[in-house]
Amino acid sequence: MPGAGDARRGPAQLFFDLAGAPRHGDADFLISPANRAAHEMISRWPDWPDSALLLVGPPGSGKTHLGAIFARRHDALLVSPTDIPEPGALCGACALLDGLEAVTDETALFHLMNFIRESGGSLLISSRRPPSALKIALPDLLSRLRRAPVVEIGAPDDSLIRAVLEKLFRDRQLAVEATLVDYVALRLERSLDAARAFVRMLDEEALSRGRPVTRALAGELLQLIDASRGA
Amino acid sequence: MKVTIERAALLRALGHVHRVVERRTTIPILANVLIDASAGTLMLKATDLDLEITEKVSADIGQPSATTLPAHTLYDIVRKLPEGAQVSIEGSGEQGQLTLRSGRSRFNLQSLPESDFPDVTSGEFSHSFSLPPADLKKLILKTQFAISSEETRYYLNGIFLHVAEVEGHQLLRAVATDGHRLARVELPAPAGSAGMPGVILPRKAVNEILRLVEDAEGAVAIELSTNKMRFSFGETVLTTKLIDGTFPDYGRVIPANNDKRLTVERGVFREAVDRVSTISSERGRAVKLALSEGRLVLSVTNPDQGSAVEEIEADYDGPPIDIGFNSRYLLDIADQLDSDTALFRLADPGSPTLIQDRDGASALYVLMPMRV
Amino acid sequence: MSDNNDDQSNSSELSIENRQKWERVRGRLRAELGEAVYNSWFARLELESLKDGAALLTVPTKFLKSWIQSHYADRIRTRLCAEFSSLDHVVIDVRSPTRRARPRDAEIASGAAVEKTSPAPAAAIVERLEPQAAKAPMRAVARADGESFGGSPLDRRLSFSTFLVGPSNQLAYAAACRVADARPGEHPLFNPLYTHAAVGLGKTHLLQAVARSANDNKRRVLYLTAEKFMSGFVSALTQHSSIAFKEKLRNIDVLIIDDVQFLQGKSIQQEFCHTLNSLIDAGKQVVVAADRPPSDLETLDERVLSRFKGGLCVDIGPLDEELRMKILEARIAAAQEAQPSFHVPPAVVTYIAKTIVTNGRDLEGAVNRLLAHSTLNGAPLCVETAENAIRDLVRSAEPKRVKIDDIQKLVASHYNISRADILSSRRTANVVRPRQIAMYLSKVLTLRSLPEIGRRFGGRDHTTVLHAVRKVEDLASKDKSLSEVIELLKRMLAE
């Protein structure tokens, strides 16, 4: 799929979207105070307080990555939030549902949770927000979600933002100076989503211009972001 | 050490190896070429730690020994000697000094011990095969222009070589891209290449291989493993480390369903692009291609200088479409094509365009448009 | 029909032409059946492949498959044949919900086990609930259709001995015990027994306790969730085995159906009504539970409702504090079996019992959170940590986002200066320190970047903010009273 640098208007060279998928390996997960509890709880399976565990954190906080680690380690069944299988079609040890906020069929999830509990399995559910803050219409489902313990991934600290920026550049195979990472970390909103969006923007703008990823280019884009926020 | 050798043979060998040596290096031994004299053969070797070239030449060896001498100085001396001269190199007796004599010229050169010379390319190779020089040249020539020169994107700073299976046929493919354009050329995979790892051959090695292949007579023997590759051109052997990166999954940027087909006379097209882009103030400004039935209008607008328009005949029967391209890229690709006509397959002004000599040609080029 | 195709990757890609034909078939079905019917049954029907004269259609659930097969198979076949001339048969199958799909024997075996061990069906099911079941990898299975009408599994934890009684559930408990303790052949006293309660108050616990106890009492029990009843009934219909299905129902002594509010569909309700009538008339005990009284089950057939009203209707009310304490203590004791180091001080139990007033499942949720908290931190629990651990159960909203404006106002009022002073360029000591503290709090409590924070503090440079943050960190590490002030301000901002 082609992409285009949206950072500036006017004539621009379009470019190939060559970026690979983010790496979701065990070693790629960066542990920090913000996500240590979540990572530890995932690692403790099957020693969980309940048949379900809720992983709550803002977009880009690493829920999908933790879920991928869990699923790979334990051969978990991946349940799509928009196509929850009939419970009779499942059994066994563990399943992963990534994105509670995207669930369309609440009744199906209700049956699935019941089934997994009855059959002694475990279900890891990730969600951007705690269940009580989501508009869940089915009280039976909400009550089961509220029974599940919650591990939260909090706002990242500065050291995590730095580490994540380094990982994002590595994922895109960009060899950048360490000072660039520090420079960006200090000036960027302290969220992983912002870090991810920024690295993508920087990579694409450099690719479009055929220029290296430098501190000067990062500075230019940071100013653009600031200006668009101020406007 | 005592060696006597014809100036022409020495110059040719030094010509092959000395280019590897970086002009500015902070490690003194890397500025030198290794000279190893033994049993009727003089072996020369130069390296920059990533790339190494060795060459063997016949010589009259009076006293076998090995040492190293400054590569560029040695090359310049031999180059300036008269044609047909004989050259002798001899230990001067003083530690670290060598004497080069030819006719009435005499040079005392500072040497460094052979034992300090790095050996960075030893080790086993997992795959080996051979290619006719013409095939190797084609793989490189057709793709080299698309290699990225942008150093932070190290994984694009070379040609990706790999074996792909297409409808039961094994193909050896060379691919290069800088993110704006992509070139891919393929050959039937030679025996021995099956199962080879995909490797990225760095730009510098690509340049040297292209020079060596010009002089090659027989088939080029190629050996590789995941981190290095060797090309043997008779007595000249090039060994290079490979780029330690993952080449992108380039297949997904090659469009499969572009349905608008444009065929133009290649020469006419090339000249027209060249003419209209004269108006650009900077290199590589966009040229707009306006396609309509039977014709193609090329135009460039430069707010500072004015505008240029040229219409050429074209075989096109799709709906009208306007699409912009970097004129430099269009010229590069037009230069790579072999036949008299060029076939463009387009989708829309924001999607990659496929360019070939004809359907199914062994080389294909993909070009991203410019937003104009 | 046996197992589904478990290898979807073989299915050939449809050509564009065939896709268009399929879209026409869908369009015709939509026009013929109307939007509502089409959306409920056909929206997720896909044409998977066309091979050797066979069209493979897939749906996401077995229920949909059964329904479409029994009601619309002929219509679909006619419409498909009109578009695809070479077609000679149509197969409808369940598509794999996930990336992997492997047939699995154990599930089929457990369905069959219910039939084979009819004297003690519940016990047979209970066996597969033992914890070691958790070691088998989970995967999607394609199950043979005729097997699905087994009982729903029972949770071994849900028995009369673990049911805690208080004023709010006393009546329901007594009625359930009476039903469970009846001798085989004894004429039912309350028939049907209808229990209703809001979520999490123990209906299912009571029903499963009845099932287990009646089964121990040598009576043949079938415990079903409404969902299970529907899927079993539909598959019996499509297998033309509804006679066997009715026969099976006739051979039991006690039918227990949970969550009847989920019973939907006209023919299913008719069948349910029929089943109810024949069982009650034959003197068999029926027990049902729902989340609301019979009069509020709007979608249920009138005849079913009147049957419900003819028996005993009992409700379980909200738990009082004493019962909540009992439930909490029992839950904590159960958790301690798995993790002996788990200790909850009495003050925390009292706090939770007073705070979580909703239902038993929320109490369980609270214990789960305490357990997770103590597992991860290893520190002893106190009321403060408990408050933190259960806050998402108590507050429906997420913790509020702290704003830089709020920080400036609070810090200004704490230091008895104005917000304008903080934003000003004045450099007197009484203004500088509060300004630095406000900058520090902005960095720590919001996600704003340093340049953004600088801008909000009267257009200062980001290096000024960075200096303030480091200065306050440094001072707070040495000055206990300052660190206490900062903690106090943080708490006030969080509220």
TrEMBL record, chain A:
GO terms for molecular function: DNA replication origin binding. InterPro entries: P-loop_NTPase (IPR027417). Signal peptide: none annotated. GO terms for cellular component: plasma membrane. GO terms for biological process: DNA replication initiation. This is Uncharacterized protein. It comes from Methylosinus sporium.
Automatic annotation (TrEMBL), chain B:
Transmembrane segments: none annotated. GO terms for biological process: DNA strand elongation involved in DNA replication. The keyword Nucleotidyltransferase applies. Belongs to the beta sliding clamp family. PANTHER family: BETA SLIDING CLAMP, DNA POLYMERASE III SUBUNIT BETA. This is Beta sliding clamp. It comes from the Bacteria. SUPFAM superfamilies: DNA clamp. GO terms for cellular component: cytoplasm; DNA polymerase III complex. It is found in: Cytoplasm. Residues 131-249 form the DNA polymerase III beta sliding clamp central domain. Forms a ring-shaped head-to-tail homodimer around DNA. Residues 1-120 form the DNA polymerase III beta sliding clamp N-terminal domain. Residues 252-371 form the DNA polymerase III beta sliding clamp C-terminal domain. Confers DNA tethering and processivity to DNA polymerases and other proteins. Acts as a clamp, forming a ring around DNA (a reaction catalyzed by the clamp-loading complex) which diffuses in an ATP-independent manner freely and bidirectionally along dsDNA. Initially characterized for its ability to contact the catalytic subunit of DNA polymerase III (Pol III), a complex, multichain enzyme responsible for most of the replicative synthesis in bacteria; Pol III exhibits 3'-5' exonuclease proofreading activity. One of its GO terms (molecular function) is DNA binding. InterPro entries: DNA_clamp_sf, DNA_polIII_beta, DNA_polIII_beta_C, DNA_polIII_beta_cen, DNA_polIII_beta_N. Its main location: cytoplasm. It comes from Methylosinus sporium. NCBIfam families: dnan (TIGR00663). The keyword Cell division does not apply. Keywords: Cytoplasm, DNA replication, DNA-binding, DNA-directed DNA polymerase, Nucleotidyltransferase, Transferase.
Automatic annotation (TrEMBL), chain C:
Residues 1-116 are annotated as: Domain I, interacts with DnaA modulators. Residues 375-495 are annotated as: Domain IV, binds dsDNA. Belongs to the DnaA family. Residues 403-472 form the Chromosomal replication initiator DnaA C-terminal domain. One of its GO terms (molecular function) is DNA replication origin binding. SUPFAM superfamilies: P-loop containing nucleoside triphosphate hydrolases (SSF52540), TrpR-like (SSF48295). Transmembrane segments: none annotated. Residues 189-322 form the AAA+ ATPase domain. The keyword DNA-binding applies. Keywords: ATP-binding, Cytoplasm, DNA replication, DNA-binding, Lipid-binding, Nucleotide-binding. It is found in: Cytoplasm. InterPro entries: AAA+_ATPase, Chromosome_initiator_DnaA, Chromosome_initiator_DnaA-like, Chromosome_initiator_DnaA_CS, DnaA_C, DnaA_dom, DnaA_N_dom, DnaA_N_sf. GO terms for biological process: DNA replication initiation; regulation of DNA replication. This is Chromosomal replication initiator protein DnaA. Oligomerizes as a right-handed, spiral filament on DNA at oriC. It comes from the Bacteria. GO terms for cellular component: cytoplasm; plasma membrane. Its main location: cytoplasm. The keyword Repressor does not apply. Domain I is involved in oligomerization and binding regulators, domain II is flexibile and of varying length in different bacteria, domain III forms the AAA+ region, while domain IV binds dsDNA. It comes from Methylosinus sporium. ATP binds at residues 200, 202-204. Plays an essential role in the initiation and regulation of chromosomal replication. ATP-DnaA binds to the origin of replication (oriC) to initiate formation of the DNA replication initiation complex once per cell cycle. Binds the DnaA box (a 9 base pair repeat at the origin) and separates the double-stranded (ds)DNA. Forms a right-handed helical filament on oriC DNA; dsDNA binds to the exterior of the filament while single-stranded (ss)DNA is stabiized in the filament's interior.
